[in-house]
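Why predict the complex rather than its parts? Because the way molecules touch one another can change local conformation, and only a joint prediction can capture that. The input here totals 645 residues.
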Amino acid sequence: MDFSLDKKHEMARTLFKEFAENEVKPLAQEVDETEKFPRGTVEKMQKIGFMGIPIPKEYGGQGCDPLTYIMCVEELSKVCGTTGVIVSAHTSLCCDPIMTYGTEEQKQKYLAPLAKGEKLGAFALTEPGAGTDAQGCQTKAVLDGEEWILNGSKCFITNGKEADIYIVIAVTDVKVDARGRKKKSFSAFIVEKDTPGFSFGTKEKKMGIRGSATYELIFEDCRIPKDNILGPQGKGFPIAMHTLDGGRIGIAAQALGIAEGALDATVAYTKERKQFGRSIAAQQNTQFQLADMAAKIEAAQMLVYKAAMAKATQKVYSVEAAKAKLFAAEVAMEVTTKCVQLFGGYGYIREYDVERMMRDAKITEIYEGTSEVQRMVISGALLK
Amino acid sequence: MKIVVCIKQVPDTKGGVKFNPDGTLDRGAMLTIMNPDDKAGLEAALRLKEQYGAEVTVLTMGLPKADEVLREAMAMGADKGILVTDRVLGGADTWATSTTIAGAIRNLEYDLIITGRQAIDGDTAQVGPQISEHLDIPVISYAQEIKIDGDYVVVQRQYEDRYHELKAKMPCLITALSELNEPRYMTPGGIFDAYDKEVTVWGRADLKDVDDSDLGLKGSPTKIAKASDKVKKGAGEKVVPDTAEDAVSYIVGKLKEKHVI
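Output of the joint prediction:
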């Protein structure tokens, strides 16, 4: 069992780190403060292939593995959680399902520009009445000749309004079983921005990842071509769940990066900050806190990398993804909270990055399946 | 067009500097980067490739570890990498280095050779021009802009307050300044491709028309008396002489004391 990265992954990490330090870190505070989507950064990432890392070259991607992509999200999130999730939502939730379930025509038409970064992607499952309980979805798609007609709304959609291509999950059939219970079946669709009948509602004002655009999507008799159904009709739910398995590894990497970034900042700060005539790093409380955080972060990294490897080699990796996300997200929240504490009053001030990192960390316990959902997935596999 | 870019793996000055007992750098023990001027030279070559079409070969002399810097160059877009490495080449000064690199380049076809102006570890700025002497081709140093005009290369050579525009027939050697451009990032796919490609490794036996007496530490006229990391300057001495004559005689005295005059 070899825990060291090979040279190509080491070099990829150097690249991601260099880009994050030079291009992303200087903007992180401003992006948070102004809640402005970092379009310029996305354009820079497009040029150097960060928007299609695990997608094969024949579809415009970089032809790397999931681990390389995960390391990119990790390094970006070390300095800016917003930038990390933009790449994660685009790659895991939009490129990946088209790669997995798309027809050759869909891959050429939609995946190639996404993987090249010419277009940005998003994924829409959540609705006002359906978060963790996806069965509560109301958005409907009805086939009318050569077109599907979409009606309904989606909320909390990452990359909303900024994205050009959306994977939308909608109800396509409702069956009533022998006991009279309604059972919905879903399908997945590819919807382009600017399609008539597709508009954007409220932009959410958030606690963290404030530069990430989070929008409500509204479909009012939105007609899309019949061929824009993704995967078989009625298979939208398993497609969404499988997509989220991959997405969770991305969010786990985001959480890991946030925790690492906070620890790096805190190690540096505790060496400089003097209290009672010596640096606070010289206090045993600080040393023990830092040690605990470093150990937990490394454990999280192992789980995240293991899940990324599982995605590369296994058909099903739900449990690995759930464990990685559960643990990394909770480590991120714990570590950033402790880091703010070690910064003392300064940690509560926006000028210091750990303040933002603590706010950014919280969402990783919530989106793409709450920690509670991850526990359901893990225990479900244990008890089956 | 065929372009050879000479690059060097140098210590990252952000990390600590470590020395061997003989005063040469302990390159194996330090964090390393591609020398910034060389990276600008590589970027210039890659832009010429995009603009005019070219095959870009990167060449380095160093420890086996210097393979990394070639992979990095290939991940940026260079087509081929050549590593010149051999124990007998170790401890080379600029003369022995330029002799070695010229010996390697004699095996290659080239229209243009680009080197960095100087490396941040030695700061001599000698190797590029020396290579051109060994190969008997023109050199234009301190390039801040490079253009191709048929069989000629048109280069702006930077001075402190002006530049000269020089035109030379190819083959020719250019030394690049880091101000020449903003080097591109590697791409993730480029990194994977770079590690899937072969890097050519050459040793002493592959060098053409060079004499053993010009190679390695033995072939180096420069002998390092002492080397150290940057030493912090002392606080200095403040003197307030009464007259201008006193000031002059004090300064002259100090210069004599230090054997400057």
